[in-house]
Design a protein that fits this description.
Largest sheet: 8 strands, parallel
CATH topology: TIM Barrel
CATH class: Alpha Beta
CATH architecture: Alpha-Beta Barrel
CATH superfamily: Glycosidases
Number of helices: 9
Oligomer: single chain
Distance between the termini: 17 Å
Shape: globular
Number of strands: 15
Number of domains: 1
Radius of gyration: 18 Å
Length: about 325
């Protein structure tokens, strides 16, 4: 888990290069990273892994729990991702859009099938010195919530607390938690994310919770991500990065009447340039950046895909262009 600390400043310049020097050698993972048992923490403006500063460089793999096969595929690709410099993945117990992962039972307990898949992913990531963002609620266009219509704030609190208690019981400390993806449950149901955090913290005081809503952050949030406004004195990571100003998750990737994505892994040149600029901005000016793509998130039969694919053209879809950029600019160092 994280430990809580203070101080983060956001810098908007994207044209300068920063030489980031971790405490340990780039090509020599620590003993903890090789065998697991990694501990994520926050100190001032820095996120730390085993005491050394780390910038989050990641991929949103929110549909990874769909099946044993998709879980196996992601685990099988972790070494390749690490070779590109990726050090973080995100996996969600609910959702995501069209994926319909139902990680919670109606009583708020974790479904053991999905929990077992998540356990394997976190363990495999830990063995490679990688971090996992564990997402809880996804309260939007997904069948994941169709059996949860009776839920109240208390049920949401219970689900988050059960997730954190499960992480603690499994001794997973290379993780941080997003209680409510994009503040969707807050917006639709008026459920307090602060209350979810309080419930989770009661289950494990060491756990740090990310806040992911456009509304002002509660005082008990420890980390700002994605939709959250910057929180004074706390880190910020863009955990669902897509090409700015492109309406990527709108009509470009969806069509009325189709319960899946379109243009899977396809980008215009302008989209790619905007995405690369945003990547640089958040890695060098904040605490990190995670790519979100239909390539990684589309449910079967179109995905989710974990092989890099190609240059994002219609004839050669994929995210290799982004992974290549990440490695070329920041090296293979997973820090």
């Amino acid at each position: 888990m994280f430990w809580r600390c203070t101080s983060c400043a956001f810098v908007t310049a994207v044209t300068f290069a920063v030489s980031f020097s971790p405490a340990r050698g780039a090509s020599n993972p620590s003993a903890a990273e090789k065998k697991g048992g990694n501990v994520l923490a926050v100190a001032g403006a820095d996120i730390l892994l085993n005491g050394a500063p780390i910038k989050i460089k990641g991929l949103r793999c929110s549909a990874a729990l769909i099946s044993d096969a998709t879980t196996d595929d992601l685990i099988g690709q972790l070494d390749s991702f690490r070779g590109y410099g990726v050090n973080t993945i995100s996996v969600y117990l609910m959702g995501s859009r069209f994926a319909d992962v139902k990680g919670y039972r109606p009583d708020g307990s974790l479904d053991p099938v999905y929990a077992a898949r998540l356990d394997r992913i976190i363990t495999a990531a830990d063995a490679r010195g990688m971090i996992v963002l564990v997402g809880c609620l996804y309260w939007s266009t997904s069948r994941a919530k169709e059996e949860l219509g009776h839920w109240t704030q208390a049920d949401a609190n219970r689900a988050v607390a059960n997730t954190v208690a499960w992480l603690k019981a499994r001794r997973h400390r290379n993780v941080f938690v997003d209680p409510d993806n994009e503040g969707m449950a807050l917006a639709e149901k008026k459920w307090s994310i602060a209350a979810m955090i309080d419930s989770g913290r009661a289950a494990n005081p060491e756990c740090v919770f990310a806040y992911n809503s456009r509304r002002p952050a509660p005082a008990n949030a420890d980390l700002a991500i994605h939709h959250s406004p910057r929180i004074s004195g706390k880190p910020y990571v863009e955990t669902e990065g897509s090409p700015p100003g492109s309406n990527y998750w709108g009509p470009y990737s969806k069509r009325d009447g189709l319960y899946n994505y379109i243009n899977v892994g396809v980008y215009t040149e302008e989209m790619k340039q905007r995405q690369l600029a945003a990547t640089t901005e958040h890695i060098e000016g904040a605490n990190g950046y995670m790519l979100a793509s239909t390539w990684l998130q589309a449910p079967p039969p179109l995905g989710p895909k974990v092989l890099p694919g190609g240059d994002g053209a219609a004839a050669n879809p994929g995210i290799r262009w982004w992974l290549d950029f990440l490695r070329e600019r920041y090296g293979r160092d997973a820090r």
